Amino acid sequence: MARPRLRTADELLDAAEALVVDSGRGGLTVRALSARTGASNGSVYHAFGDLESLLASTWLRRARQYLALLRQSVDADLLAGEGRRAVLAAADTPARLAEQDLRAARLLTALTRDDVLTDGVAEPVASDLRALDQELGEVLRALARAVRDRAGRAAVDVVTTCVVRLPAALLFPEIRAGRVRSLARRQLAAAVGAVLDTP
Amino acid sequence: MARPRLRTADELLDAAEALVVDSGRGGLTVRALSARTGASNGSVYHAFGDLESLLASTWLRRARQYLALLRQSVDADLLAGEGRRAVLAAADTPARLAEQDLRAARLLTALTRDDVLTDGVAEPVASDLRALDQELGEVLRALARAVRDRAGRAAVDVVTTCVVRLPAALLFPEIRAGRVRSLARRQLAAAVGAVLDTP
DNA sequence: ACGGTTGTGGAGCGTGTGCTCCAATACGGG
DNA sequence: CCCGTATTGGAGCACACGCTCCACAACCGT
pTM above 0.85? Predict the structure, then answer.
């Protein structure tokens, strides 16, 4: 029916990921990707249509992995009404992701939300992006409800600090270095506890 | 003796700073700077020689402000042997800087060390850069000595977490938003305390 | 065997970048 | 008054980028 692909989409995403991990967002260019994979300019654009969409796809694949692990880490405690334990587990998720797939964790440390959530990303991918962003927001709101002491936005903000900002500060450097020491995880747990208890 | 400057170096640095704050490292281009200040291409290169050096000078000016405030915040407690208080004060320094000069604090949140510490920066500025980096290292080592319970590198790493990474996580978003709420500062103090107490 | 469909290769366009180069300019000391 | 000197203005070079375009190749159902 048609000519088969020489390289799967995942192979291209793997190469794109390596470029981003090595040199940041700026390291991902069509020419660099061609050089690394052997794929031609035309193939890349035929497969992804757009550089921003390619970057978004690269991020999306790993963000989904993270979100799945986050849910799995949190669900039990959330059902048991153990809000505090749920937040601690959520904060530790990047460390767990690094254990089971270092490349995935590395990619997520190499990009900011702003790198990916531009308005330049085309429609098939853009809606996936919005969907995932919203799912993550729902998890954060669920956690906020489970540890409620402050109301509304403030609680979500506190949880965001615990689950996003503190892990970025304490875990991301370790992930980039290739190994998450247990000291960092204990520091993170202590910091999360302290932030949750701050009046 | 010579033709006088139409614009002082500081005026150019102010404009460069505004560009970086608004659009990140990528927002600083010679053309954008020319458009904003009216200075010509030739003037910019005559004054700074290099774009990387210009960026480094922009950062350096503010980093010196930060370092001065850091020293001032820390000296008394350090002399009094109050290591823990010194680390807490050091961690809070970005918040104090934002109070007294928001633009300075903003610039420091807009750049990573990697944005500035490239090998492309030319020699008059490069040595200043190294000097300041070393001074900051000395402050961190002094703090590490003052709170010693773990030895050597590990103590410096713990202090770096408290003084660099945690403030970046908890204070920088506030600084970018334009106001540092006292909640964030209390969360930071609590987190620093927790990290210092982590065995 | 052939035709429709899908993927591939690569030339090349337009744009923005850092930077070089040099003529023109404005000042102050002799 | 004029000359040396520091600064300015701007044309222009080389390069890297994203992206378009289209001829061509490989497969499968008929």
Answer: yes
